[in-house]
Design goal:
The protein is α/β, with parallel strands linked by helices. It is built from 17 helices and 17 strands. The strands form three sheets. Strands 3-4-5-2-1-6-7-10-11 form a nine-stranded mixed sheet, sandwiched between helices. The chain has a six-stranded parallel sheet with strand order 14-13-12-15-16-17, sandwiched between helices. Strands 8-9 form a two-stranded antiparallel sheet.
Length: 491
């Protein structure tokens, strides 16, 4: 099968979050199963060019219709750790992708509408006719719209679209100018509730809604999050649209790349280990303490947090977990970057306040190498998210034998099973701790059980960590499910 992934990210060359990991990991799995996979991406000025091999001109004169005129683009091709990637570079004064960042510009809706248009135009003029076009998040939500309303009349009538929503919070809400820019020049037609009109702002179109309405199949990144999207407010206003299209909507759990996240061969950790050699993990704990200047106290567990510092991640509970861990005689390590200045200032204040504490280290920012060492060296990982479409942190933690303490939302429900209370899994299949409320008492209850097990029943804690390592959250099962979706929509 010939599959083209179109996205705004692909790790490690373009990575702002989990989307990049998913695009790369899924593409790798699909190709390993014998499919032809190509990825189309924007050519950002700030992407990691050192992860691209053999970058060369693929199509020099791509003219993309735009606002009644056309913008000249160059398309480059290169290999990102074995994946064939095409990068689209507009040669115009708009500098759509020369901003020094991936997201956050005031004209993001224009930038990614243009990218979507350019990606389709490239497929058209280069005579590429994939069986499946797989689009991701709001940035590519207009692709199935333009494919159905425009490009199918120019020879692309047999392409099928799978559309994956990674985060409902960002939907791409914009004005009628997008219609005129892309050539969808019929306001009355598209400003219709059954097409692109935003469900609550009737003077705007919604990219993500367009993706849902026009795609052949829509999924989000875990079964439980798909349920939440239909039956709670987590879909941020798109619940009724999902209900209308429920016959083509589902949830497929993300996987992780065990070639990159595997303590048995991780190039970023000093001591490799697996289930049979689990006790070597303690050497990575020592190395983590040395790296972060923590005290080498064998009577204290290390509890960690890795992730963004923002409202989605339950930042108030992250802060509480830090002080609760210290109060319970544990050590606490944090690695994360804040998404707004207020939170950034808050945690820098805490970092300065705790700077001389031998049991705590806050690393404000992100460091890939350090993240690997924390996964390998920590005993527990706290993930108190307000909502979590899938979550990769808990899946990585399980692989490294680091027991997750999670809030029961989204993909966390599908991957972490409470040691004491999960009625759906036998005791030998449980792998962590789960709490459900958003208050500090619920978090403390779960942390108390985890810390207590580590302190008083170390053998049982070790067994729990090993049970977590026994789970396979690679791309094997998700890859099979996506191929099932592809075959279904082709038929």
């Amino acid at each position: 099968m010939y599959i083209v992934q179109i996205a705004s990210e692909c790790a490690p060359v373009i990575k702002a979050g989990g989307l990049g990991d998913v695009v790369y990991g899924l593409s790798t799995e699909l190709e390993n199963r014998g499919n032809c996979v190509e990825i189309i991406l924007p050519m950002y000025d700030c992407m990691r060019y050192d992860h691209i091999w053999g970058l060369h001109d693929a199509y020099k004169d791509l003219w993309v219709p735009w606002y009644g005129g056309a913008i000249h683009c160059s398309v480059f091709c290169g290999w990102v750790h074995g994946r064939v990637c095409f990068f689209i570079r507009p040669n115009s004064g708009d500098n759509f992708f020369n901003r020094g960042r991936y997201y956050g510009a005031l004209d993001d809706h224009l930038r990614f509408a243009f990218f979507s248009k350019a990606a389709l135009e490239f497929l058209l003029v280069s005579n590429k006719r994939p069986d499946i076009i797989h689009c991701h998040d709001w940035q590519t939500g207009l692709i199935p719209v333009m494919l159905f309303e425009m490009y199918k009349w120019h020879g692309m009538w047999n392409q099928r679209v799978a559309y994956t929503i990674h985060n409902f919070k960002h939907q791409g809400v914009a004005g009628a100018n997008i219609l005129w820019a892309t050539g969808l020049n019929n306001d009355a037609y598209y400003f219709d509730y059954d097409r692109l009109q935003d469900n609550f702002n009737h003077g705007a179109i919604n990219f993500m809604k367009g993706g849902i309405v026009y795609s052949n199949f829509v999924n989000t990144v875990s079964p439980h999050h798909a349920w939440e999207a239909r039956y709670s407010d987590i879909s941020c206003g798109l619940g009724h649209t999902l209900e209308l299209h429920n016959y083509k909507f589902g949830g497929i759990l993300n996987g992780i790349d065990y070639g990159m996240w595997n303590p048995d061969k991780d190039r970023y950790i000093p001591n490799h280990y697996n289930q049979e050699t689990f006790d070597i993990k303690a050497e990575n704990k020592k190395a983590l303490r040395e790296r972060l200047l923590l005290s080498q106290d064998e009577d204290k567990p290390i509890i960690a947090y890795i992730g963004r510092l923002d409202g989605q991640k339950g930042v108030h509970l992250v802060h509480h977990a830090m002080y609760y861990a210290l109060g319970r005689g544990a050590q606490f390590v944090l690695l994360g970057s804040a998404t707004n200045q207020e939170i950034n200032n808050w945690f820098w204040h805490e970092k300065n306040h705790l700077n001389n504490n031998p049991d705590c280290h806050l690393e404000i920012g992100f460091n890939e190498e350090l993240a690997h060492l924390i996964y390998a060296g920590a005993d527990m990982m706290v993930i108190p998210s307000n909502y979590e479409p899938c979550g990769l942190t808990q899946i990585i933690s399980l692989k490294y034998g680091t027991v997750p303490i999670v809030r029961g939302v989204g993909g966390l429900v599908n991957t972490v099973f409470d040691r004491d209370y999960d009625a759906n899994h036998a005791p030998e299949k449980r792998n962590g701790y789960v709490f459900y409320q958003t208050d500090s008492h619920a978090l403390e209850s779960a942390m108390d059980r985890a810390i207590g097990l580590w302190q008083h029943y170390p053998k049982e804690f070790r067994e729990l960590a090993l049970q977590g390592m026994d789970y396979d959250y690679s791309w094997k099962d998700p890859g099979e499910k996506y191929l099932g979706v592809y075959e279904y929509i082709r038929a």
